[in-house]
Design brief:
alpha/beta; 8-stranded parallel barrel; 12 helices; 15% strand
Length: 261
């Protein structure tokens, strides 16, 4: 058995837009619901979600049959956590709060086997179909997506250098934390935030480095893809559930009031 190419990586390397969704509910059943929708990629979150290795494993198993590429965001740039996430079959990782070239290099090294990195070698793991994928060790380094998240003004200023680190597959802008760092907490869609992000993003695009982000405004997400962002998440499962529940209740309350007048 041969290793299946990483569809998300192939797409962003070719400049083909990839539409994603954030998966934060920390539950395999909920992950299956959104996985069958047909998104190109799904971000399984551990940084701001109540997830652990067990819940992530269940989510990866739920997503696998449906074609979306599962990217996991670990809680931190931690070599041990990275090793475990890759062993259970994450197709790639989104590293939060990368602040320097040195941190970028450490993230890449954690995802690479020696002599190219420091990832520990295990035998029978889910990532290699329990030893059945015979070329896994030869191809895993190239087929594991390494995406780095810049979330402060300082990191945005260094984003081109971070993106140019050998082995980095893309740079992801985190507008919520960038806004907070600018003294604009909760105002991540403001012009000031995007006037900082967009010039840095264009420099990365000009250098051939894929750029991504998360925004929950579909029209703005579409605009970013049209402007050259390669991978954009356009919503979160928690937000979809909350808004859907609110809208349904509002509809029912309105109908009930009309009936009682």
């Amino acid at each position: 058995m041969k290793m299946t190419p990483n569809a998300f990586l192939a797409a962003i390397r070719q400049g083909r837009p990839q539409i994603g969704l954030w998966v934060s509910l920390a539950n395999n059943y909920a992950a299956e619901v959104v996985a069958s929708a047909g998104y190109d990629w799904l971000l399984v979150d551990m940084e701001h979600a109540p997830s652990d290795m067990g819940t992530v494993l269940g989510q990866l198993q739920a997503i696998a049959p449906h074609g979306a590429t599962a990217i996991v965001r670990p809680p931190w740039n931690d070599t041990v956590m990275v090793k475990r996430l890759l062993d259970v079959g994450a197709s790639g990782l989104l590293f939060p709060m990368v602040q320097s070239v040195q941190e970028a290099q450490a993230a890449v090294a954690a995802c690479r086997y020696p002599p190219n990195g420091v990832r520990g070698v295990a035998g029978s793991i889910r990532a290699n179909n329990f030893g059945r994928i015979t070329d896994y060790y030869a191809k895993a380094d190239d087929q594991t997506a390494v995406i780095l998240q810049v979330e402060t003004q300082s990191a945005v200023a260094q984003s081109l250098e971070i993106g140019q680190v050998d082995g980095v597959d893309g740079v992801f802008f985190g507008p919520a934390d960038i806004a907070a760092d600018m003294g604009l907490l909760g105002k991540h869609m403001s012009d000031e935030v995007w006037n900082l992000i967009l010039p840095a993003a264009r420099k990365l695009m000009a250098a051939g480095i894929p750029v991504g982000t998360l925004v929950t405004d579909p029209a703005f997400a579409q605009k970013l893809l049209a402007d050259g962002f390669t991978f954009v998440a356009c919503g979160t499962d928690t937000n979809l559930l909350a808004k859907g529940a609110d809208a349904l209740l509002a509809q029912m309350r309105t109908a009930t009031r009309k009936e009682n007048t």
